[in-house]
Amino acid sequence: MSRPIEVIGSLNIDLVTTTSRVPNAGETIQASSFFTGFGGKGANQAVAAARLSGKQHENESSSESAASTTNVRMVGAVGSDQFGEDALAALKREGIDSAAVKVMQEQKTGSTVIIVEESSGENRILFTPGANFAVTSEDVGNGIGKEAGIAVFQLEIPFNTVVEGLRIAKEGGKETILNPAPAEALPYHVYKHIDHLIVNETEASVLSGVSEDRLQSDASMLDRVARQFVDKGVRNVIVTLGSKGVYWMTTSGSSEPSSSSIPGRSVKAVDTTAAGDTFLGAYAVALAELPHGSGDIKAAVERANLAASITVQRQGAQASIPHKSEVPDQ
């Protein structure tokens, strides 16, 4: 049986507008479409883990979805409003344990305004935290189970909660994953509590102090930046490079860190909103099927890259995340 996956993070309502181009300051243009959906990096990653582990959606019959042996648990907070009720119902439909998601009275559920440019599929996001900023380190300690498993964090809940939560999870025997988004520099002592650091180029730049232009123009800089994180205590560093693929460095299985990369997959990107969250969810599922501390992350990276390439071909956040049956075996 796979190890459980616990996602500590945000739950939001997404307000999404698609447009042919982004308006200039002071300009009004007609958009192409508008829709609402469920999001928040934490919830997105939990949904990705549930779907990609084969968790059965409540609307599916047993013949349509293989039984999952991976338990996915969400730790977070929503407001005492309709959006909060709807977000909890959405988690239940995905088969996600939401017992550790608290409802904050007289607070609003977090919200995200997303503008998607149709020509490129690129997005611009405005995040209002709402109840997400009521999540405390005590909630983390009370919400995660005692069994060994995977603990996943992002930075859409209070920064100090994440810092302390990583320590609690690591000292409790969890294998930890941090996706530091929105990007923010981390204190030195935090890195030793991170088993897997998953960043894009922007996040790698913010954490390392190396400009994004240098990361993109000098191939050797990825090795230097990843080694910087490893030297601080991280065991595995994964840098997603969008259409260019994925780079990683690992310290597992050898006395010296080793690095490798895989190319991007050639697809037509429609909306990149949940690509990173899908990658992380798929990666966590692959890890959950391995022994704690296994050095074989190549297969996990490849599976995650494939799942994310499916997500970008669809619109929406959670709506775009594929199920296990939609991701072909490699």
Distance, first to last CA: 22 Å
Structural class: alpha/beta
Strand order of the largest sheet: 5-4-1-8-9-10-11-12-13
Helix content: 25-40%
Please give the count of helices: 9
Q: Give the number of DSSP strands.
A: 13
Mean pLDDT: 92
What overall geometry do the principal axes of the alpha carbons give?
globular
Fraction in beta strands: 15-25%
Round the Cα radius of gyration to an integer and report it. 19 Å
Sheet with most strands = 9 strands, mixed
Low-confidence segments, given as residue ranges, are none
N-to-C order of helices and strands: EEEHEHEEEHEHEEHHHEEEHH
How would you portray this structure in words?
- Strand 12 (246-250) and strand 13 (258-262) form a beta hairpin.
- This protein is of the alpha/beta class.
- The model has no long low-confidence stretch (mean pLDDT 92).
- The two termini are 22 Å apart.
- The chain is built from nine helices and 13 strands.
- The strands form two sheets. The chain has a nine-stranded mixed sheet with strand order 5-4-1-8-9-10-11-12-13, with helices on both faces. Strands 3-2-6-7 form a four-stranded mixed sheet.
